[in-house]
Amino acid sequence: MFDPTLPNLSLRYKLPLQASALVLVTALLLTSAILVREYQQSRQDLFNSAESTARLLATTLVQPLIHDDLWRVYALIHAPFDPVDPWPLGADSLIVLDNDQRVYVASEPRRFPIGTALPDVDAPFAALPGRLEGIMEAGFQALAPADSEHFLFVVPIHFDGVALGSLVLAYPRALVLPRFQSIVSRALFATGVVLVLMLPLTWWLGRRVAEPLVHLSGCMNQLGDRLPSEDACTLPDSRDEIGQLGRSFRQLLSQLRDKAALEQGMLASERLAAVGRITAGIAHEINNPLGGMLNAISTHRRHGEADPLTARTLSLLDRGLKQIRDTVGALLVEARLSQHALTPQDLQDIQTLVGPDAQKRAVKVEWHSAVGTRLNLPSSPVRQILLNLVLNAIQASEPGGNVTCDLRLSGRFLHIGVMNHGRPIAQEQMQHLFEPFVSGSGQGSGLGLWVTYQLVSQLRGRVEVTSGDDGETRFDVYLPVPEGEQV
Known about the structure:
Elements: H1 11-60, H2 62-66, H3 70-78, E1 93-97, E2 103-106, H4 135-138, E3 141-143, E4 150-159, E5 162-172, H5 176-221, H6 241-303, H7 308-330, E6 341-342, H8 344-353, H9 355-361, E7 364-369, E8 375-378, H10 379-396, E9 402-410, E10 413-421, H11 427-430, H12 448-458, E11 462-467, E12 472-480
Parallel strand pairs: 7-9
Antiparallel strand pairs: 1-2, 1-5, 3-4, 4-5, 6-8, 9-10, 10-12, 11-12
Helix pairs in contact: 1-5, 6-7, 7-10, 8-10, 10-12
């Protein structure tokens, strides 16, 4: 169930979100730092401009003050406010104070009458009282009262070390805002462009980093039910921590597969041991009546008179009963595979024996045998192998289908190939196909292929099985022919 809280969020979302948040916070902090720096720079530029202006005006006021020319002083400080030809000063108001800190003259004489004591001066100069001490030594003083909307700049007026008074300029704080607002708009635009470019890239990089971990998590979640296949978990093989984690997980999967194979082998061994105990008891019970029937056939041959058809039938019965006896013996650990050598007639008997089953299932059996001479192989197990494979193919075929049996010598091997069309064998079932009580066709007891595998193993051969999606299933048995065969 999807949990939207951040600790429980999937890494494919958590990492991109955290990276995007980091980019966003970094951009905002950098933009804020730049804006603060630009505001301070704009303010410093205003202070520098005001200081230059104040010192220049203070220098021009020296001579009028020496001659106590009040109108000349007024004309000089009022010139920037001339509506016809104003100076680009930027100050709201100017006042000149005498040495007693009284208004000598002001740019707005009605607001700041001549002779007004400094404590009685209204805004924006109301913050001056008590802050002008040491102005001669300082040479210039900038005041930024917190409760005022103006910056105040004070410069002393003196001549040959004699104080004549002081000049005070009041600049509105709003002078800084136009430039600062322009900088803010440009900075926000640049930050927006960077975020538009960086956030998708950050999201993509975060997803790319998280995908291997998410994939690894999905593979690990499968360990409880089944082991994922080699192709299901494609983890990176890099040298970083994710690559090391991927290699460790692949090593864990390899060890788990080995463990699973060992457990399957132990389970198969237990099944084989159980079947061995059962077959040991069954073999004893079957061999007794088999011996009697074989003796009866032998007695009939010696003392009876039989026509050719009966003789042929008795010969077929004799070979079939001996095959049953040898097959039962093959189920035992101490079984001995020392029967007569395999002849073409032994192989031809299988075609006769499977005829009724093929007719009953309406399946056509195509027989291709290139074995035309005796082979140095025990006949009974080879006959049983061929019989089991052909009967299984008939059972697995659809009515009206075909079963192809191919017998030939391939180098030093007898090759038995049996092919049919029907429902394909599932991959999961293929792994347990030769275990007892497992049927490839879904019919029968499931012992036929197990017996076949045991017989092939005793003859030091091998079995190969292929089953495609097109429904073609093929069993290929390769039995080595010992030295001494007659070809």
